[in-house]
Design goal:
By secondary structure, the protein is of the alpha/beta class. It is built from four helices and six strands; from the N terminus they run βαββαβααββ. Strands 3-2-4-5-1-6 form a six-stranded parallel beta sheet. Helix 2 runs parallel beside helix 4. The chain is globular. The two termini are 20 Å apart. The model has no long low-confidence stretch (mean pLDDT 93).
């Protein structure tokens, strides 16, 4: 499953994601991964959450990010959920079609490997492709 937290910059998406991941780590049996564009929030995460700082890796487009995620999943079959903050930035997405295609790929990965994704997207809900509305878990 792919879930989307959507809202313009500064609306509290990151805060909500941090609270959610720290709450969920208390009940999951597997691993949670938190991916961000900076290590800024590392110390706000429970120490059991695997933090990945994406600038540490040479990712330059959406396909490379998808490949990277597949690599992360292949190295740890206990991953239950991957939280990705600033998804549009990390995936180099600047079009609605690019977003739709990326989420379609994540949906396939999710079903195949039983890993759920939670993405924060800095955008107004109205600007998302209509077919993604069912994936919105929170709009700020």
């Amino acid at each position: 499953m792919v879930e989307i937290i959507v809202g313009e910059k500064g609306t509290g998406k990151t805060k909500h994601m941090l609270e959610r991941v720290n709450q969920e780590i208390k009940t999951v049996q597997g691993t949670l991964v938190y991916i961000d564009k900076s290590p800024k929030y590392m110390y706000q995460l429970d120490s059991r959450v695997r933090m990945i700082n994406m600038p540490d890796y040479p990712i330059n487009d959406t396909d490379e990010l998808i490949g990277f995620l597949c690599g992360v999943i292949s190295q740890n079959n206990s991953i239950e959920k991957i939280f990705i903050d600033s998804f549009l930035t990390l995936a180099y997405i600047d079009t609605s079609e690019g977003l739709r295609l990326a989420i379609d790929k994540l949906s396939v990965i999710s079903k195949t490997f039983h890993v759920n994704f939670v993405l924060s997207i800095s955008q107004k809900e109205e600007k998302l492709p209509e077919e993604l509305n069912a994936k919105i878990c929170l709009s700020l």
